[in-house]
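User: Some background: our group keeps a shared notebook of sequences we're curious about, and every so often someone picks one and asks for a predicted structure to add to the entry. Today it's my turn. The entry only has the sequence so far, pasted here. Could you supply the structure so I can complete it?
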Amino acid sequence: MKPNSISPRAIALTALLGAALYAVSGESGGPSYDRYGRLAAYPGKEAAACPAQDARTAVILASGQSNIANHAEAPARTAFPGRVFGFYDGECAPAASPLLGGTNLGGEWLTLLGDALIRSGRYDRVVLVPASVGGQPIFRFAEGDLGEMLDETAKRVSARYRVTHVIWHQGESDYADETEPDAYRAMFLKIVGRLRAKGIDAPVFVSVATYCAPMRDWKNGNAIQAAQRALPDEKLGLWPGVDSDAFDPKTSRSDNCHFSAAGQARMAEAQAKVILDHAPR
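Assistant: Of course. Here's the predicted structure to add to the notebook entry:
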């Protein structure tokens, strides 16, 4: 299958995931969305002063598809509202599900990640910058309109902060679409190139993420997993992230695809460990 084609199966899943989201987008006082389908405003979210950045401030750009984009089971709210923030379009708000900058209105694990980093004692403040759209193959981030979304996000956050970490959590659609591993690698490197061109030189942590059983019968050891595991390259600033495919789907997935509350907690703790193991002491 060509890497820049969208299969009917992927289109159908995207439509299913997005149906509820777009159904409420026009309601008075309800959520609103940007041109990429990302949440741009949500009732009850109030802007807060963005924190100043110092050596103990983590600024995390988080990109990919649904499992890093508000499609998880359990809503989360930071236990540190003056220390863990979501960042969207130049403004901050205390981190809470759903985070602006991701699709859907459900839970997420990034807020839990921010809390874990605060509890570690290594960071005093965490700023989360979602740039994620559910149900999308990698070519849209590398060569399509979601590449423009990444460019815009990078420009906005870089005007205020130095991004300290990038998380890439995507691959379920490309497993379903049977994207060639070499094509996946080439497109991922284009994404990294886009970020570097916008001045983001932070380490990029590459998740192993292909599991979404409703999209396609899943097999461990698949070609996209192999491509993701081969991506880390210290010279390019690419590092192994979390292998979420290794999580037990019976406990970590709520619908045999998206993270359950237990999966959210496990993902957050595992990603925190990856970041802390990499952080200079």
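Suggested note for the entry: The first helix runs from residue 8 to 23. DSSP finds nine helices and nine strands in the chain.
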